[in-house]
Amino acid sequence: MMKWILVLFLGAQFTFGQSIEDYFQQIPDSVFQLCNWRDTSENGIANHSIKTLDIKNGFIGFKRNEEEHDFFQAAVYRGSEGQSFILIRNQACEHCCCEEPKTFVYLVENGKWKNVTSTHFPKMELKDFITQDILLKNYGDVNNYAEIQVQIPQHGTVSIAKVLFCDYVVEDEIISSDLYERIEKALFTREINFDKKENLFKLK
């Protein structure tokens, strides 16, 4: 008898709850303009990638092979009133030419998706990640060749943001190797925490 009660209870949870897999299928198509990780056709990127699906922790990720980081990540954060905030990171399928990954935040309420990235996620610049801002003065072009990457965690709620430079900045003599080394040494990573009381992602 107890076994049947348990089965019915779990079935109710599955029917009425929304998992990260459910949310993944509902993400607006515009997010996948960089790369469509929902494409499961024979030649689709999703069929030739490594997928991480963690229902318990509300996380999904895709990467092309074991050697690389996730090219796509999404995770669910619960707000102060139980609403869902979906944090998403996506980048081009063939990441090259210094294309910066894009980060999105969507508020999901009553089945409706609203893009709240501009109001709920911090705006970040290169100067937010360097200890010696003087290095960037008179080097305006440096900002054009740096990308800010956000890594969304599979476990916990703290994302990590860091700066990476395009591979060719020194090779093509866009900036000197000396300046590049000085900037690299002065860079540091930042944490992005979710403030559940204010429903905001904050840079620490």
Counting H and I runs of at least 4 residues, what is the number of helices?
A: 5
The end-to-end span amounts to 52 Å
Counted up, domains total: 1
Biggest sheet, spatial arrangement of strands: 1-2-3-4-5-6
SSE run: HHEEEEEEHEEHHEE
Principal-axes geometry comes out as: globular
Q: Residue ranges: pLDDT <50 for 5 or more in a row?
A: 1-16
Structural class: alpha+beta
What is the averaged pLDDT score? 83
Largest sheet data:
6 strands, antiparallel
What portion of residues belong to β-strands?
Answer: 25-35%
Helix-residue proportion:
10-25%
> How many β-strand stretches?
10
Spatial extent as radius of gyration:
20 Å
Secondary structure layout:
Blueprint: H1 2-16, H2 20-26, E1 50-54, E2 59-63, E3 72-78, E4 84-90, E5 102-109, E6 112-115, H3 117-120, E7 146-151, E8 159-165, H4 168-171, H5 177-186, E9 190-195, E10 200-203
Antiparallel strand pairs: 1-2, 2-3, 3-4, 4-5, 5-6, 7-8, 8-9, 9-10
What does it look like?
- The protein is of the alpha+beta class and 204 residues long.
- It has one domain (18-203).
- Helices cover 20% and strands 29% of the residues.
- The protein contains five helices and ten strands, in the order ααββββββαββααββ.
- The strands form two sheets. Strands 1-2-3-4-5-6 form a six-stranded antiparallel β-sheet.
- The radius of gyration is 20 Å and the shape is globular.
- 20% of the residues are buried.
- Mean pLDDT is 83; it is low at 1-16.
Please supply descriptive tags for the structure shown above.
alpha+beta, four-stranded antiparallel sheet, globular, 5 helices, disordered N terminus, six-stranded antiparallel sheet, 204 residues
